[in-house]
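Pipeline run #58 for the internal structure catalog. This entry was flagged by the ingest filter as a single-chain record with no existing model, so it goes straight to prediction. Upstream metadata was stripped on purpose; only the residue string is passed forward. Reviewer on rotation: M.T. Logging verbosity set to normal.
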Amino acid sequence: MTHTDSDSGSNHSSSKASGSTSATSVGETFGKGEEKREHDMQGEFNGNVKVSKALPTKSEWSRCAEEPVLDVEGKEQPFGSLYANEAGPSRHLIIFVRHFFCGNCQEYLRTLSTAIPPSSLNQLTTPTTITVIGCGEPALIPLYTSATSCPYPIFTNPTRTLYSTLGMIRTLDLGSKKPEYIQRSIFGAAVQSIIQGLRSGRNALKSGDFWQVGGELMVECEGKGDVGKVSWVHRMRNTRDHAEIGELKRVLGLEGDGRVPRRKWSEGVRGVVSRRGTGLSTSSQGEGKRSRSHSAGERSRSKSRERKGMVKLADGTDGREEFEGLLREGRVREIGAAA
């Protein structure tokens, strides 16, 4: 495929047109202060969106190198500094994720961290790194690191300029096939996503654009100061379309059959949700199973502790009623998008 600088506007864009039906986006569910858009919500959850398979052009990659990214402390540095500092030849796998509350992306990083730990990169002949880029505010990076147990550095590009320049699209399509890296239901991922948002207080509005999807790319550099070149790229076609672990192992040159190691459902999960009557209760990872014979006093104290663990929102509530409201009103599409 011939791909020139003039192709970027067309080859990197989605082929699906927005519908004319007005609907409330998930960002607005959390009060997200972004522009309102017209979308056909039914269409947005159906199948894949076509994306370009072309590598970035030289001019596109040059623009990316100067684009600022933020670290966990909010300090700014050029994107190119993430891969152009090695003295000799090096390779860098860069993973672009969705908003920081996306349960599917969190599941992807948990699976990646188990299947491709940093120790596995040490066996490679060429020095190789893995870096994660999000689109939310840096204040949420510690929460994201904790929720995913990700051992790799995480940065963010809130302007999403890197995403657009690299041809990564905006969609809420779920895709027709559940990927191997997801080991739990979409509802479970959505529940965790929503509760993380509600419990993060003011940061609930800062996780990033819910419509933005990401992808993965491999950068190869010859030495320090080299701008590098992209040798492989995968752009997500839907909200669950990260490159499978087997594909990443092939690109990295790691041995193995690419099968995804199975994990316990609760591994890496910071909020476990259960239905009790008309309420929702949350407990942190590692909390033991409660005996059914607990006294009323113990249940009351437990409920009090759980309430204290929830961050109060601006209206003085902890968000449980809002989540239950989504369920009662049947607003499943919004819950699905949150995943």
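catalog note: DSSP finds twelve helices and nine strands in the chain.
catalog note: The longest strand covers residues 90-96.
status: ready for reviewer M.T.
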